[in-house]
Amino acid sequence: MDQNEQNLSKRERQELKHEEKVNRQMEEKNKKRMTSIILWSFITLFVGGTIAAMIFLASREKGPEFVGGSVKAANETDWVKGAPLKDAKITVIEYADFECPACGAYYPTIKKLAADFKNVSFVYRHFPLPQHKGARPAAQAAEAAGEQGKFWEMHDLIFENQSIWSRSTSAEEAFAAYAERLGLDMAKYKTDLTSAKAKTKINTDYQSGSSEVDGTPSFFLNNKKIQNPRNYEEFRSILQAAGGTL
Q: What residue stretches are annotated with the Thioredoxin domain (predicted)?
C-alpha cells in the first residue's frame, strides 16, 4: 500500500468518526425534542381537560341569579303544569303576555322543561301589557277554555300561532276557531269569555306581579325573581342546582 492510499484511508477514518459523532449528536437532539413534545402535549391535554371539566361543572352547577323581590306563592287558583304543587320541590312562576314576542320565544323552552322535570311546578300568570291590544282578549280566551278543562291546550295554540293572530284585525275570531278545534261548548265559551270570573282572574294575576314585573316574561323561582335564563340549557342547569330532578 503506497503513502497516498494510507493517507486516504486515514482521512476516511476521520470522516467516518466525525460522521458518527454528528449522528450521535443529532440522535440526542431528536430524543430531547421528542421528550419535550410529549411533555408539552401531555401538559396541554391536562390543562385543556381541566379547563373543560371546570366549565362543564360550572355550567351544571349554575344557580339562579336573583334580581328582585318576591310574589305571592302559587295556590289552587293558579294554572299549573308539571308536578302538582303539593309534590313539587321547586315552583317556577311565569308572568307573561300572550302577544309578547319574547314570551312566544320562551314558550317551547318552558313546555320542554315542564315535560322533563319530575318535581318542578310551572305556573302561568297573566300580565297583559297595555300596548298589546290582543293580549287581554287572548287571556280571556284561555280562561274561558280553562272553564272546560282546556286552559293549557288553548295556551299552547295561542302561543304557537302568535305570529298569525297578532297581525290579524280579528284576533277574537282566531281564538274562537281554536276553541272549536279543541271541541269546546261554544255557547259556554262565549259566555265565559267575558265573564266577571275571567276578568277578575286576569286582573288578580296582573296585580300580584305589578310591583316586581317590569317586563314579560318574568320568572320567579320559589316566589323570588330571577334573571331570565338565556336558553333551555341554562334554565335546566338553574333548576338542577336548585334541586330539580329530570
A: 57-244
